[in-house]
From TrEMBL:
Signal peptide bounds: 1-21
Classification via InterPro entries: DUF302 (IPR005180), TT1751-like_sf (IPR035923)
Name of the protein: CrcB family protein
PANTHER family xrefs: INNER MEMBRANE OR EXPORTED (PTHR38342:SF2), SLR5037 PROTEIN (PTHR38342)
Organism in which the protein naturally occurs: Nitratireductor basaltis
Keywords: Signal
Gene3D superfamilies: TT1751-like domain
Keyword check for Isomerase: no
Stored Pfam families: DUF302
Domain (DUF302): residue spans on this chain: 59-118
Length: 154
């Protein structure tokens, strides 16, 4: 946990944050999952289907690699979104459509299954969006809630 976060949130809040998710160097939020890549992706897809968002696509990179006789660790990307959230962001900056609908990566790395996505704040900064704060807040809340359901122990 960085000194910057500790100074902003205090030591106890920083410890809570680091226990649940980590923010990567490039604005990534990364959570560990106790489940396999497939089960974690299935759980995320189910959570999306139960939400106002719509699952748009699911891309299994490992399966695609195997089709051309290449090997790689499991990696699946789920694409999903809610036009009520994404549209105001694209209205503020149409280039944001490159990152919408949202993408969440579920992958295996060093024997651990991880779930990662770009934070709403990173997307806002990437496209220099001024405004659409309610949409970005809803996006952040949805991403955290949906990915937490995917990695829950139950």
């Amino acid at each position: 946990m960085s000194q910057f976060l500790k100074s902003i949130f205090g030591a106890s809040a920083a410890l809570i944050l680091s226990a649940t998710a980590s923010l990567g160097a490039e604005g990534w939020v990364i959570k560990d999952s106790p489940h396999s890549v497939t089960e974690t992706a299935d759980r995320l897809a189910a959570a999306v289907e139960e939400s106002p968002a719509k699952l748009v696509a699911r891309l299994d990179h490992q399966a695609n690699a195997e089709r051309v006789d290449l090997k790689m660790q499991p990696a699946t990307v789920l694409f999903f979104g809610n036009p009520k959230v994404g549209t105001p962001i694209m209205q503020a900056n149409p280039r944001a459509a490159l990152d919408l609908p949202l993408r969440v990566l579920v992958w295996e790395e060093e024997g651990k299954v991880r779930v990662g996505y770009l934070s709403a704040e990173a997307l806002k900064e990437r496209y220099g969006v001024n405004g659409a704060d309610e949409a970005f807040d809803a996006m952040a809340k949805a991403l955290d809630g949906l990915t937490s359901k995917a990695v829950d122990e139950e």
